[in-house]
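Page 37, top half.
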Amino acid sequence: MKKIIIITVLIVILITSGYLLLKTNTFENYTNNISDLLKLKKENAYLKEKMGNETSLKANITEFNIENKELKMLKERLNKESQKYKTDVAIVTKRDFDTWNSFVEINKGSKNGVKINTNVITSQGLVGKVTEVSENTSIVELLSAVKYNSYISVQPKNNHQLQGLVKGADEKTGYLKMTLFNVNDKLKTGEIIVTSGLGGIYLPGIEIGKVKEAKIDNLGLNQTAYVEPLYDLNDLEYVILLLRKK
């Protein structure tokens, strides 16, 4: 009887020990799995952050290269115009959403020699003219204004016999509207349109845009050309001011 009790106790001890060992191993495995998952999560987060940083870096490099190219072109244009005019460079400091296509504010004013009707250009051509001047800032009316306040006398760059006027932009396309003096004049798609210098406000030979299409009205009395600006006026950051002739 005593032997049976001893054997029974030994069996219970063995079973209990095995259960505890199994439970301990299971807990350790569970703990190890959690640890592995946390480690993988951290590694994944690190890789995502690294990839994000690389993508951001590439985007910054691309943006830097574009801006660097634009500044280089601006400098070349500045050097060219400085041979004929007193010039200055300005930064666009303000642009309201409600008048996005009509006006911008720049950081140069009367103390820098800016006056009403000062011509404002980019590296690729005419942007508009100054309409308001304070001591340190000025307001520039853009060519893309639907209701531009003055006519611009223009002509094709390679055909000074053909004359026309540009005033305002088409509200849907943003193309400048050019009216030709002679309805029989023929404009070619892609021709570059420049200022003629007539009228006294705009200096001659400044590029405005290229012809997209020309249409004669139903009565055959008027011909309108649509001119695409050479520069994306939505991306204005730096401009050149043509202050006066040397």
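Page 37, bottom half:
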Amino acid sequence: MKCSLCNEGLFIPLENHIEIYCRTEAYTMCMQYSLSSEFYRPSLAENTAAPRDNRRRHIRMEDRQRVTLVQLNRSETVASHVSTPARTIDLSLGGLRLQTAEPLVNDTVIRFSFDDLAPDFPLAGTATVKWCHRLIDSPEYQAGLAFSNEQTAEAMGMYLGTRHFLR
């Protein structure tokens, strides 16, 4: 069986990929299928918060995941080889809110990766710290991060779609 998503030779699946995804009912978990499927592409209209409800452009979905943060330079090269563990509080197509023991500096570019999702759904991307506040009666911090590029937003949309948040 040949993957119907590689008609122009852009994606050539390996044999183990074909056995796991292409020839089974797990095809919906294939990243290539998800990227080309209208089912997993939430329309902006369906995922836009009403302006009178809040200032957010996208609806936030509660989701607790362990993530690792690494600070980047403006050129998006690693600024510090020290990683910071964090946990997400909520996610959207535009960014995420997380909690961490370390303060994050506003306007810092961060590379994040979801620890528990790989290898099934490797989710990573870049985001800019928009705000960071220390929690009351806690030594931890909450921070809001906005995605830095469209690829990160698309990957988050696919993740939220597979989690059935955006249906």
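Margin note: The mean pLDDT is 74.
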